[in-house]
Structure prediction request, 314 residues.
Amino acid sequence: MGDLVVFVDHKQRRRLQRLGPGRVFQAPGGGVVRHEAVVGMPEGGAVTTSTGGVLRVLRPTLEDYILLMPRRTQVIYPKDLGQIVVRSNLGPGDRVLEAGVGSGATTLALLRAVGPSGRVISYERRPEFARLARENVERFFGGRPAWWRLEIRDVYAGIEERDLDAVVLDVPEPVHCVEAAARALRPGGVLLCWLPTTNQVQQLVTSLRRHPAWDLIETIELLLRPWHVTAASVRPEHRMVAHTGFLITARRVVPGDRGEGAADRGRNAQPGSGSPASAPGRGTPASGDPSADAGEASPVPPGDEPSDPQGGSP
Prediction:
């Protein structure tokens, strides 16, 4: 008892449940399954509902969990999360800061990527979002990961950490973090921002190109198209996951050492564009300089115990 499982019916509909004594699962196609009937069965086995339906029972993948977990905000989709981890160059033992935690989808991916030997620091300015993210993370891992720190903090006020391997931002105006991120990252570190609109992308990229600590700036968009495959035909599905957002990456470089990739810095930039922090005349301290301003953090307010999905269809 206490394990998270996913029930999958013949239409591939998935429902997330935490097994508990006396609980039942109401299948979307009708009928119920008592949780006791699932305990002890091998993963991938099938159970029969009270009306004769058959359900496959599996432990949830990270993708399953992110798409089925409680949320108050639109989460970053798994198709983007994979690229976030890869393009941020994160692996076991790395240190990463994220801002804009929301419901915790990106947090989960980052925690899995860096593992117990790494460190994930999360800034979220809204206590109610921080509380939900904490509950979702603790529900997935079975407790709070020791390598995670969650703070009520506005990233626009500054970043306290230094010598980070990556900074991941899911906030509306990351242009205000260009200078702070440069101070927080080690040379060679990666800044990654997720943005939904082209106007936001243009403003951020223009500011990054004007700043001497950034180079190798790239913007991508991912489109995911499932395919329908049977013995009779192979064709694209009628629906796909198209635009969700843009991923912008930049590498932290040594100011003043301008390579070929910096040749077009500022090209086509409009006067006055970019953030005040990246205005001409302001120097960029080397990584590790403690002089950057940082907003004051407050501990995450204690919340109720995580509420597990139980009974009925979400």
Remarks:
- The chain has six helices and 16 strands.
